[in-house]
Amino acid sequence: MVLATHTSSAKRSFGGAFFDALGTFYQRRWLLKYFIQRQVTRSYRRSYLGFAWAILGPLVWVFFLTLIFSEIVGLRFREVEEDPNLNFGIFLYCGLLPFLAFSEALNKGINSIKGNAGLVQKVVFPLELLPFTNAIASMIDKFFGVGALLIVLLAFGRPLYWTVLALPLIVVIQVIFILGLTYLMAVLGTYLPDVAEIMRPVIRGMFFLTPIIWTPERLPEQLRWVVDYNPLAYVVNAYRDVILLGQLPGAQATLYFTLFSVALFVAAFALFVRLKPRFADLV
Amino acid sequence: MTLAVSLEGIGKRYRISPTRSSLLRETLSFGKVKRSHDFWALQDINLEVQRGTTLGILGRNGAGKSTLLRIISGVLQPSTGTVEVNGRLTAIFGLGSGFNPEFTGRENAMLNGLILGIDRAEMLKRFDEIEAFADIGEFMDQPVRTYSSGMKSRLGFAVAVNVDPEVLVLDEALSAGDAAFKKKTLQRMYDLRESGTTILFVSHSMGMVKKFCTDAVLLHKGRLVTQGDPEEVADRYRELIERAQEKDGTAGGPDRGLDDMLEREEEEDLEGVGSRNGSARGTGEAEIEAVRVLDESGEPAGEVPSGGTVTVRVNARYSADLEESSLGITLRSKKAGVEVFSTDTGLEGVSLGPRRERERATADFTFGVPLQPGTYTVDAFVARQGDPYLGRTNGAASFKVTRAGSELSVGGLVHLPTKVEVHGPGGELESPGRPS
């Protein structure tokens, strides 16, 4: 039993606390499962179609984006001679998915402790589960988004590349990246209420600094660093590479992104574990 | 005995600052500007709670009761001192607070159990028990947003008390639900107490603390003022409140009436649940004033070793002139829920004689208790042969039969006087002791 002996003031080594906290994910796996399930299905609970909206929602969205930008506005995202259907709508949507995962990680992360005051103040509860739940639930949501994208690609008669099989690997690294961000934001948002206000312009800025509505090829040489040093740009490009273009992302960039994500996660999680005893006083 | 909870030098400090930005200015000026001050919600708390104790925590609003419970349960970290808790701890601060309105009662019960730290498999096993205890019928499968607030707290309480904690921490959770449910929760608390659960709870109800607790502490302005016998601590608490009322100039007068009313209401709620003041019934021609359980030396006895002797002293008061009446008692086993025996002065061959109105009578019933360890309650009554009871009270007193020494207790409820002889195959009596 988890609460078998609780000795709240026993001095434990910090490393021990770090791995204990990691261990709770396994110990409380059922709770995690229910939490995530609750988060994912929450918005569909009262609707008649229920969970079908998880896929219907993104489907409608990508359909309209495609229809408007390729059929009505006729905006060409880039000139690809042999593939004139490679249009703005699909490209935009494919880039939006990782961006939304990113912005949700920031927004939900900030509130993951504060928004659960009941659990933080009233129950003896492993708080590290809360940011995790938010991050995973948001990624599951994006999973349905990818599903909708693939359905639309098939519907428009576009080829499906074998490189799509590499997407799960990219997603695994992306999850570590998102978890790191969420834990960092959970700590910052709990300690500094102003972070929520600071993050709003930051997220908006990231939307324009990342090649979502533009392509990296259009960037002048002296501004290449905007994409090179932007981890979010890597994810956006990787998604487009494997889903739309049938190519694998660069090995070096992948390595850098992986190292960055793991470092971010370890640092943010360690910070979280160290500071979590004080959270109940702060919310 | 082992300690369930041990607190050493516990203090909790909060910083009070006029605004958030003044806190920032203070930080940036490296202590040159001082706008905030420290507030100690708790200070110098030393407390040891033995396993199996029921500890009531009394104190006025803001005395630090909830903070203390939160520190014990590990939700809050103390600013100074150390906390040690041995055993599985379940804490309830506000019932059903973790419920999600969109999900059904069943789903929420599961989630609540998992949050409290119970295995999923264990929760599935206990589901029937929880459902029966909450007793909300088909609503169990409806979203919680359709529940009344009473139903919510019933479900919350059902989950919390059906998880068999070793240390149970309650923050005024007992006031949930209607009288019937209150009784049920109290009964459950008694069962938990009997099974050895350590219970810590905050209450404003002195009656509750007096009746239910084995120990009590009084907190005042973050400090532990008194600890010990519930009666004494409750008296100190009453003094404290009276002093505060005097300061406000609201003592005496109608307030006194209000106090009495509150207390009486409390007692009515607690009626018949293992309490020492039972319910009065009968025709009203006589009234049981007190029932006490005494040991062989005439001292009040709470515990009697199995095979020992107790005396039940019954005080009755007559409200009418009566030519003939008898005083009697009924002993019940709480665990088995059966009547062990019932007798009265007439059956024992003692006559009370004629009694006038307002006259009192006292009878001592001394009997052996060759009984199974457990709790036994005593009903007392005044009766006239063949007539309904003139006055009676149920569960007016109780005592615990403990195991005598290291002896194993026999099976069943009563150890009837028994003589054992062992015979050989030819019918000859073997010598007592070990058969050869």
Radius of gyration of chain B: 27 Å
Q: What form of chain B results from the Cα inertia axes?
A: globular
Q: Bin the strand percentage of chain A.
A: under 5%
Helix content bin of chain A: 55-70%
**Separation of the first and last Cα atoms of chain B:** 41 Å
Tally of DSSP β-strands of chain A? 1
Biggest sheet, spatial arrangement of strands of chain B: 5-6-7-3-8-9
Instruction: Indicate the low-confidence ranges of chain A by residue numbers.
Output: 1-11
Please give the largest β-sheet of chain B.
Answer: 6 strands, mixed
Query: What is the SS-derived class of chain B?
Result: alpha/beta
* Major sheet characteristics of chain A: none
Give the beta-strand count of chain B.
18
Helix and strand succession of chain A?
EHHHHHHHHHHHH
pLDDT averaged residue by residue of chain A: 84
What form of chain A results from the Cα inertia axes? globular
Q: Helix count of chain B, per DSSP?
A: 9
Q: Give unreliable regions of chain B as ranges.
A: 271-280
Provide mean pLDDT of chain B, rounded: 79
Alpha carbon gyration radius of chain A: 21 Å
Structural class of chain A: mainly alpha
Largest interface, by Cβ-Cβ below 8 angstroms: which chains and how many residues each? Answer: A-B, 31 and 39 residues
What does this protein structure show overall?
The complex is a heterodimer of chains A (283) and B (436). With 283 residues, chain A is mostly helical. Chain A has 12 helices and 1 strand, in the order βαααααααααααα. Chain B has helices at 20-28, 65-73, 105-115, 120-134, 149-161, 179-194, 206-212, 230-248, 254-270, and strands spanning 3-16, 37-50, 54-59, 80-86, 89-93, 167-171, 198-202, 215-220, 223-228, 280-281, 286-294, 303-305, 309-318, 326-333, 338-344, 360-368, 374-383, 389-402. In chain B, β14 (326-333) and β15 form a beta hairpin. Chains A and B meet through β1, α2 and α5 of A and α2, β4, β5 and α3 of B. β1 (5-6) of chain A pairs antiparallel with β4 (80-86) of chain B.
